[in-house]
Amino acid sequence: MTRIKLCGLSRRCDIEAANALLPDYIGFVFAKKSRRYVAPETAKALREKLNPAIRAVGVFVREAPEFVAGLLNDGVIDLAQLHGGEDEAYIARLRALTDRPIIQAFRIEAPADLDRARASKADTILLDNGAGGTGSAFDWSLLRGFDRPYFLAGGLGPGNVAEAIAALRPFAVDVSSGIETDGCKDIEKMKAFVAAARAADGKGE
User: Fold this and answer.
1) Domain range 3-200, its CATH number among 2.120.10.30, 2.60.40.1740, 3.20.20.70, 2.60.40.10
2) 83-92 pLDDT per residue, tens
3) Which residues contact 14 (CB under 8 A, 6 or more apart)?
4) Of residues 13, 78, 87, 128, which has the active-site annotation?
5) Which residue, 87, 93, 116, 141, has most beta carbons within 10 Å?
6) C-alpha span between 202 and 205 (Å, rounded)
7) pLDDT at 123 over 90
8) Is 128 annotated in the active site?
C-alpha cells in the first residue's frame, strides 16, 4: 500500500485534521525561509496533539546536524527529511548523532539526478521538482525502470494522486501545496487527497 505524507502542517487545526484522516506521515518544515516554517517549540506542542500512530517528519535545509539530531532524539520528530542538497558527509555526521531514519530529497530534472538518488546512503529518498512546496510536478516518465523505493513529491493533489499511484507505485506520496487554499491547509482538500490515494490502492470505502 502506498504511504501518505501530508507536509507543511503548522496549526492545531491541521493536526486535528490529520488525526481524523490518519495519514502515515505528517511533515513540519523547519526551513526558516519557507512560509510553512514552524519553530521547534511550536512543533513540539503540535506533536503532543498528534495521534501516536502518525509519524512526524522534520524538513530541513542545510541545518546544523546537531540541531536536527536534537529534535529527533527528543521525540519532536521521528524522521529527518534533508532538502538542501546535503552530501554524504552530512548524512554520516547525522548518523553519528542519532539512529533515527533519514530521508534525502532530490530535485529530478534528468536521468543523472536519478543516479544520484539511487546511490544515496539515506534510509529513504524523496523525488521532487524543486526546493519543495512548489506545486509543480517533474517529468514522471523519467522514473520508468527506477528500482529504489521513494517518496513522490511535486505537483500532487486530489486530482492526480490516483494517476501517480497507478502509474508509478511509489513507496509514498507527499503533498503540501496541493492541499492548501490561500496558503493554508484545507481540510476538504486533505480529505479528498487521502481518499483518492487510498482508493487508488483499493483501500477506499
Assistant:
1) 3.20.20.70
2) 999 999 999 9
3) 26, 46, 185
4) 128
5) 93
6) 9
7) yes
8) yes
Name the nearest CA neighbour of 177 among 69, 31, 34. Answer: 34
Pairwise CA distance, residues 137 & 161, whole Å: 11
Average confidence score pLDDT of the chain? 93
Q: What's the mean pLDDT in 96-123?
A: 95
User: Which amino acid, 78?
Assistant: D
User: Which band of pLDDT confidence, cut at 50, 70 and 90, is reported for residue 130?
Assistant: low
Using CA atoms, how far apart are residues 90 and 76, in angstroms rounded to an integer?
21
Classify residue 34 by its DSSP letter: S
In the block, residue with C-alpha cell 487521502: 194
Domain segments of the chain as ranges: 3-200
Q: Determine the Cα angle at 179 with ends 103 and 23, to 5°.
A: 55
Q: How confident is the model at residue 164 (pLDDT cuts 50, 70, 90)?
A: very high
- Taking the C-alpha atoms of residue 132 and residue 62, their distance in angstroms, rounded to an integer, is 14
